[in-house]
Amino acid sequence: MDAPVQEYDYAMNVKVEEFPIQEEIKQEQETKTKYLPYKCIYCETCFAEKNSLVIHLEKHNREKPYQCNLCRKCFAKNVYLLQHQRTHIENKPYKCSGCDKSFLQKVDLMVHKRTHT
């Protein structure tokens, strides 16, 4: 690794050690290209194996036939639609016994309860 370059930060009135990070970024990109050669064309996520990319691409190409009748958002599975539709209702069935907060999902209540301990 190269020695740090001394610079002077005039705004802060101090000397600053700045490591040449451009080289590190370049090396990281080369390593990623070398070990993760399969790149998603939609989100640029990289994979080591072609099969992993194929499985990932299904997320982008998946049909979403279940549509919310209130906001028109679409979902791949009916269970996701049902979970989403609960966000439109005022009634949040999972109430915290330690305060006045309520939640749509039980898991959110469980996470919240940790704040009281």
UniProtKB/TrEMBL annotation:
<dbReference type="GO" id="GO:0005634">
    <property type="term" value="C:nucleus"/>
</dbReference>
<feature type="domain" description="C2H2-type">
    <location>
        <begin position="38"/>
        <end position="65"/>
    </location>
</feature>
<keyword id="KW-0804">Transcription</keyword>
<protein>
    <recommendedName>
        <fullName>C2H2-type domain-containing protein</fullName>
    </recommendedName>
</protein>
<keyword id="KW-0539">Nucleus</keyword>
<dbReference type="Pfam" id="PF00096">
    <property type="entry name" value="zf-C2H2"/>
</dbReference>
<dbReference type="InterPro" id="IPR050636">
    <property type="entry name" value="C2H2-ZF_domain-containing"/>
</dbReference>
<keyword id="KW-0863">Zinc-finger</keyword>
<dbReference type="GO" id="GO:0008270">
    <property type="term" value="F:zinc ion binding"/>
</dbReference>
<comment type="similarity">
    <text>Belongs to the krueppel C2H2-type zinc-finger protein family.</text>
</comment>
<dbReference type="InterPro" id="IPR036236">
    <property type="entry name" value="Znf_C2H2_sf"/>
</dbReference>
<keyword id="KW-0805">Transcription regulation</keyword>
<feature type="domain" description="C2H2-type">
    <location>
        <begin position="66"/>
        <end position="93"/>
    </location>
</feature>
<keyword id="KW-0238">DNA-binding</keyword>
<keyword id="KW-0479">Metal-binding</keyword>
<dbReference type="InterPro" id="IPR013087">
    <property type="entry name" value="Znf_C2H2_type"/>
</dbReference>
<feature type="domain" description="C2H2-type">
    <location>
        <begin position="94"/>
        <end position="117"/>
    </location>
</feature>
<keyword id="KW-0862">Zinc</keyword>
<keyword id="KW-0677">Repeat</keyword>
<dbReference type="GO" id="GO:0003677">
    <property type="term" value="F:DNA binding"/>
</dbReference>
